[in-house]
Design goal:
The chain is an alpha/beta fold. It is 37% helix and 22% strand.
């Protein structure tokens, strides 16, 4: 069975942890162990988030006053290589008999996507209100308030096409584990002259994961995070997560944009477009989610 695994930000950093490389390595070691259990029985493709990393790169670039700030597509490429390298290495250690390949992945978006006028995608660390206001004035960045504070928000256009899709297929045919489309992929547009250029945006990784899984004819999409599944309300209290449901049963749920909402949306998209199954749940439960023993499983029909 072909499975696309989308790692949430907790695969690299637990909530509240600093952006420390050794912490990320330790967390990814646990992630690699969970992924290896799935890879023992299935063909896998791995994608991942990059929100904290691309935000940190933007801050580091902004601190260097002798050169213009690099655009978000370049920062996205940097973070895709950085995070991909760490995942690649830990997967290679967990699966020494398998070949792992990390691929920089460009994802086409529409230059006229209305998302460019309505930034919603959070990146970088949390700030208090005073510091967010300072950065808004100094850098022209946009911010939104979340439970833990303020985060920078940037445009998040709809992914339309994965440019390296044929290459990914070739690698899978060669029995490689592929790490790709990190951070949603590098956002690019194609001009009328058929030239490719990057744009100032960050694509939602869950939407890209759903597109990737559908285009690869994957049987399953696993969206792994730091909670056991999708809850009917939040905070859940003593309420258990939803175990099995259809896309229609999730449509009326009100889920926070920037947290579980994109994962539910991506799961529903994949199931509707492919007829496969999607699972949402804790990283450590990856294999059990796939077997229907843990997490929230989304499929076309439920008995």
């Amino acid at each position: 069975m072909r499975v696309v695994i989308a790692l949430g930000g907790n695969a690299l950093l637990r909530r509240g942890q600093p952006l420390d490389t050794e912490l990320q390595r330790a967390n990814l070691r646990e992630a690699a162990s969970a992924i290896a259990e799935v890879a023992d029985e299935h063909q896998i493709v791995v994608t991942h988030g990059n929100g904290p990393q691309v935000g940190l790169l933007a801050l580091q670039a902004a601190a260097y006053e002798d050169a213009p700030e690099p655009p978000l597509d370049v920062l996205g490429a940097e973070s895709e290589g950085m995070v991909g390298y760490l995942i690649d290495q830990e997967l290679s250690n967990a699966l020494p008999d398998r070949q792992v390949v990390t691929l920089l992945t460009q994802v086409e978006v529409d230059a006229n996507d209305p998302a460019f006028d309505d930034p919603t995608k959070p990146i970088g660390p949390f700030y208090d209100a005073d510091r967010a206001g300072e950065l808004e004035g100094e850098r022209g960045w946009s911010f939104a308030e979340f439970d833990a504070g303020y985060r920078r928000i940037v445009p998040s256009p709809e992914p339309r096409r994965i440019r390296e899709l044929d290459t990914i297929r070739v690698l899978l045919q060669a029995d490689r584990i592929v790490v790709c489309a990190g951070g949603g992929g590098i956002p690019v547009v194609v001009t009328p002259a058929r030239a490719v250029r990057g744009v100032e945006a960050v694509i939602d990784k869950d939407r890209s994961a759903a597109l990737l899984a559908a285009r690869l004819n994957a049987h399953a999409l696993l969206l792994l995070t730091d909670v056991p599944g999708v809850y009917p309300s939040w905070p859940p209290g003593d309420t258990p997560p939803i175990t099995t449901c259809t896309p229609e049963q999730l449509e009326d749920m009100r889920l926070e944009r920037g947290s579980m909402g994109p994962k539910v949306e991506a799961a529903c998209r994949f199931v509707r477009s492919s007829g496969g199954i999607a699972g949402i749940g804790a990283l450590a439960d990856a294999a059990r989610i796939l077997r229907g023993e843990a997490g929230t499983r989304v499929q076309r029909a439920v008995e």
